[in-house]
Design brief:
Methane Monooxygenase Hydroxylase, Chain G, domain 1, alpha/beta, Flavocytochrome C3, Chain A, domain 1, 16 strands, seven-stranded mixed sheet, globular, single chain, FAD/NAD(P)-binding domain
C-alpha cells in the first residue's frame, strides 16, 4: 500500500509533536506522525527534571546560560547553536504553555525555578518531578485535536527512501542524496507499506536501550540514527553518551531504570557511600552539583574502589514535607520498594541516559540528506558538545522544531512526491528459533556496550566491542535479508548499527574529553593506570 503525506514525522515525543503543531498552523499540509508504539511512550515522558530557560532576569541572563552550556560541553559545543537555543528558549516556553503545558509557580505567581548540576542560577522550569510527562500530556491533547495531523501509532519505520531504492549506488560521498519518505511496518497487516512525503523529519529519540541498564524505555533503540546512517547521512559525536549519575538502584529494573532527577541534588541532596561518608570533595569543588560526566565517573570510581554496586543520595536532612511536595513521584516510587527518602538514603548508580551525538544537522535542523530533517535527541545540533548540561534537551527539541518548521515551510513547494518508488519485497518467514536468537542478541548488545563502551573505556575494551559487534552485524544482516521484517529484528539491526557508531567514534577520538573517557588517553592530571583522575 502507498500513502502520501506532505510531512512524514517519525517519532512522537516533544520534538516531533512540536513540529507537527507548528506546521499544522498553516492549515494546508497533510501531516503524518508515526510512532513505533503509542503516542505516550517516549523518552520525553520519562524526563523528570525540567526545562532550562532564562526567565528570572533579576539574577539570570543569556550569557550565563550560554557559558554554563559551553563549560558543561567541555568547550566542544557549537557557540552559534548554543546561542540559538538559549536566546530562543523563552519564546518556546511560551509556546508550550499556549499548547496547554503547566509549569509550577510559586506563591507570587512566578515560575518555581530549580537549579541543577552545572547551572550557575536557578533556571529550571518544572512540573513537580514529572515535567516530561506533563509536556507529553499537553502536546498529545493538542495533536489529537488537530485535524491536519494523522497519528499512526504502532507503526514502525524500517528504512527511509532515497535514490538507493531507485537502483542508484549511494555512498557517503554521493552528492545530493534525497529522502522521498519511508518504508513503514503496518501493525494490522504485518506488511511494509510505502509512505511518500515531500518533507521527512526524524524525531526518534535516543539510544539508551543499546546498554544493559538505562533510564530510557525499551523503545530507545536509536532507530532514526541507524536509518540515516544506512542511507549514508552524516552521523556525529556518537562517542558522547551521557550516563546519568543517579538512577535508582533496584535489582531487576534495568529497562528503564527509575531516574532520580538532577533536581534532587539541586535541592540539596548529598552523595554518600552507604556508610554515610561523603566523597565528591575528592573530585570537584562543586561537589554533588558538578556536571554529570564528572559525577558519574566519580560514582563509578567509588563503586570500583569499595566493591559496591551502588552509592547513596541523601535528602534526610531536608524538611520531609518539602521533599514530598517537590518530589512526589520519587517519594512514592521509593516507598513502593520499602525506602522512605525522608528518613533513609536512596541507593543510586549511573546508567545510560542521553545521546549527545546523532544525525548531523545545521541550524535549521536539516540533515546532510536533502528533504530530511532531524530534531530532538536523535539529532546532533552542536548544542551539547562533549556533555549535555542538565535540562537543555527538552528546550533544544522545541527550539529546533521551530527552526525546522520555519525552514521546511519555506521550501516545501519546491518538492513533489516521487511516485517511482518500488514496493518493499517482504517475502520470507521467521522461525521461532530465530526469534529466540534475536532476543539473545539484543541482550548481548547491551552487555557488550555496558562492559566495553561504558563510563570508562580503553583501547582494548573498544577493540573487543568492535569485534563482537561485527560478528553480530554479519549474522543479523544475513538473517534480515532472508526473512520478512518484524519490529524485533529491525530494532536489533538498529541497536547493532548504533553500537558500532558509538564504538567507532570512540576509537577515533584520541583524547579523553567530555563524556568520552579513555584511560589510554589520560587528562593532563592523570596517569594511564588511573581509572578516574
Amino acid at each position: 500500500m502507498v500513502q502520501q503525506y506532505d510531512y512524514l514525522i517519525i517519532g512522537g515525543g516533544v520534538a516531533g509533536m512540536s513540529l507537527a503543531l507548528k506546521v499544522a498552523r498553516e492549515q494546508k499540509y497533510s501531516i503524518a506522525l508515526c510512532c513505533k508504539t503509542t503516542l505516550n511512550e517516549t523518552n520525553t515522558t520519562k524526563a523528570q527534571g525540567g526545562v532550562a530557560s532564562v526567565t528570572n532576569l533579576l539574577v539570570d541572563d543569556f550569557d550565563k546560560h550560554i557559558h554554563d552550556t559551553m563549560v558543561a560541553g567541555d568547550w566542544l559545543s557549537n557557540p552559534t547553536a548554543v546561542e540559538q537555543v538559549v536566546r530562543n528558549a523563552p519564546a518556546q516556553i511560551d509556546e508550550l504553555v499556549n499548547w496547554g503545558v503547566n509549569f509550577d509557580k510559586n506563591e507570587q505567581g512566578n515560575y518555581d525555578l530549580h537549579r541543577e548540576g552545572g547551572h550557575s542560577e536557578f533556571r529550571i522550569l518544572h512540573h513537580a518531578d514529572d515535567t516530561g510527562a506533563e509536556i507529553q500530556r499537553g502536546l498529545m491533547e493538542a495533536v489529537r485535536h488537530n485535524p491536519f495531523i494523522t497519528v499512526l501509532e504502532n507503526h514502525f519505520a524500517v528504512e527511509i527512501i532515497t535514490q538507493h531504492h531507485l537502483g542508484m549506488r549511494v555512498t557517503h560521498r554521493t552528492p545530493d542524496i534525497e529522502c522521498y519518505g519511508a518504508y513503514i511496518l503496518n501493525p494490522d497487516t504485518q506488511k511494509i507499506d510505502t509512505y511518500l512525503s515531500r518533507i521527512t523529519v526524524m524525531a526518534t529519540g535516543g539510544t539508551g536501550a543499546v546498554y544493559a541498564t538505562t533510564t530510557n524505555p525499551n523503545i530507545a533503540t536509536g532507530d532514526g540514527i541507524a536509518m540515516v546512517h544506512r542511507a549514508k547521512g552524516q552521523i556525529k559525536d556518537m562517542e558522547f553518551v551521557q550516563f546519568h549519575p543517579t538512577a535508582l538502584f533496584h535489582v531487576g529494573e534495568t529497562h528503564p531504570a527509575y531516574l532520580i532527577t538532577e533536581a534532587m541534588r539541586g535541592y540539596g541532596g548529598i552523595l554518600r557511600l552507604p556508610n554515610g561518608e561523603e566523597f565528591m570533595h575528592k573530585y570537584d569543588s562543586r561537589l554533588s552539583l558538578a556536571p554529570r560526566d564528572i559525577v558519574a565517573r566519580a560514582i563509578d570510581n567509588e563503586m570500583k574502589i569499595h566493591g559496591l554496586d551502588h552509592v547513596c543520595l541523601d535528602v534526610t536532612h531536608k524538611d520531609p514535607q518539602e521533599t514530598q511536595h517537590h518530589f512526589p513521584n520519587i517519594y512514592q516510587k521509593c516507598l513502593s520498594i520499602g525506602i522512605d527518602i525522608t528518613k533513609e538514603y536512596i541507593p543510586v548508580a549511573p546508567c545510560a541516559h542521553y545521546m549527545c551525538g546523532g544525525i548531523q544537522v545545521n541550524l535549521d535542523g536539516e540533515s546532510t540528506i536533502h528533504r530530511l530533517y532531524a530534531i530532538g535527541e536523535c539529532s546532533c545540533t552542536g548544542l551539547h558538545g562533549g556533555n549535555r548540561l542538565a535540562s537543555n534537551s527538552l528546550i533544544e527539541a522545541v527550539v529546533y522544531a521551530d527552526a525546522a518548521a520555519k525552514h521546511s515551510l519555506s521550501v516545501i513547494e519546491q518538492y513533489d512526491f516521487n511516485t517511482q518508488i518500488p514496493s518493499w519485497n517482504d517475502e520470507g518467514t521467521l522461525s521461532n528459533e530465530e526469534k529466540v536468537l534475536i532476543s539473545q542478541d539484543m541482550r548481548e548488545v547491551g552487555q557488550i556496550m555496558s562492559t566495553y563502551v561504558g563510563i570508562v573505556r580503553s583501547n582494548l575494551r573498544l577493540r573487543r566491542a568492535w569485534e563482537r559487534l561485527d560478528l553480530l552485524y554479519e549474522e543479523t544482516e544475513d538473517l534480515f535479508k532472508r526473512v520478512r521484517p518484524t519490529k524485533d529484528i529491525c530494532e536489533l539491526r538498529n541497536m547493532i548499527n548504533v553500537g558500532y557508531l558509538i564504538t567507532r567514534h570512540a576509537i577515533e577520538r584520541k583524547e579523553s574529553r567530555g563524556l568520552h573517557y579513555n584511560i589510554d588517553y589520560p587528562r593532563k592530571d592523570q596517569t594511564p593506570q588511573q581509572e578516574v583522575w
